[in-house]
Amino acid sequence: MSEVAVLMRKAPYGTVYTAEGFRTLMGIAVFEMEISVVFVDDGVYALVAGQAPGKLDMKPLGDAFPMLSEFGVTDFYVHDESLQERGLTADDLVMDVTIVDSAQVAHILESAGKVLPF
Amino acid sequence: MKMGVMLLEGPYQHQAADSAYHFVQAARARGHEIVGIFLYTDAVNNINQFISPPGERNIAARFDELAEQGIPVIACTACAKFRGLRPNLKTEHTRLSGLGSLAEYLRTTDRFVTFGD
Q: Which of A77, B45, B49, B88 could join B10 via S-S bond, C-beta 3.0 to 4.6 A?
């Protein structure tokens, strides 16, 4: 049961949502909230290893997520079907996460006190 | 019930800003308390006092009215800097603040609703 579930739904560079979702995580984690982070749909791309967005003048977002553990954010969930649909596996990701099915995603969101969708 | 709202979109391009406003009005009409409205990312553009849509609803004025009625309408300071929204451009009763306000609303509300794309 987390206080807040942050839901990442979008690819990391086409729009600002995932980057702002990350910034929100940093911003609210300092208030010692219990936070779950859930990656679904194109949101799973945010955790893929080897991102090199330098030609877009942007910083790699994937490398940032593992640092959140220093702020007490350690519960990362990735939707298995979203990975499979994109030809990805847990081995492609920058960090160890909990792989969850659709029913588990629903349960995490349902049991969280608040959900912040990005 | 105590409710908080986050908005992620600016005015006119998306329905989200209108939906957030109508949600707040409907919730208050039913006796709920809106603890605060947090304007994040492009939503900070909803507090530009120079918004003047000829013959259409004024979204900036709507949010300013809510703020005048005592509902904190808080726009993210960093997001405002990214978009050149200086403090002197903002509507009278709205405020600029950080993610601490969002954290506070998450902590102090029974329900928290996000409007975005």
A: B45
